Amino acid sequence: MEKAVIDAIRRKEQLPKSMSDSEIAKEYKGTYTAARAAVSLEHEPLDETLNKAMRKVLPFMNGKKKK
């Protein structure tokens, strides 16, 4: 398991820093949590993607207030 995936699991599951990378890899190998962590490293969350698309289509949704 890649170090970046292990770090993502540690962050999302709020695991203690005292837990070694090998323990995390052994415990989470092949789990849904590990798959989600790996995917999150490569892709931005769906809500961010939708927000960006909506801002392009509907410019008034930029959130910037005009003075």
Query: What spatial form do the alpha-carbon principal axes imply?
Result: elongated
Q: Which structural class fits the helix and strand makeup? A: mainly alpha
The number of helical runs is: 4
Helix content: 55-70%
Order of helices and strands: HHHH
Strand content: under 5%
Q: How confident is the prediction overall: mean pLDDT?
A: 81
What is the subunit organization of this protein?
single chain
**Main sheet overview:** none
Q: How does this model look, in words?
A:
- Helices cover 63% and strands 0% of the residues.
- The chain is mainly α and 67 residues long.
- The chain has one domain (3-62).
- The longest helix has 12 residues, at 46-57.
- The protein starts with a helix and ends in a 10-residue tail after the last helix.
Quick description:
The chain is built from 4 helices and no strands. The chain has helices at residues 3-13, 21-28, 32-42, 46-57.
Q: What features would you highlight for this structure?
A:
single chain; 4 helices; 63% helix; 0% strand
Blueprint (SSEs and pairs):
Elements: H1 3-13, H2 21-28, H3 32-42, H4 46-57
Helix pairs in contact: 1-2, 1-3
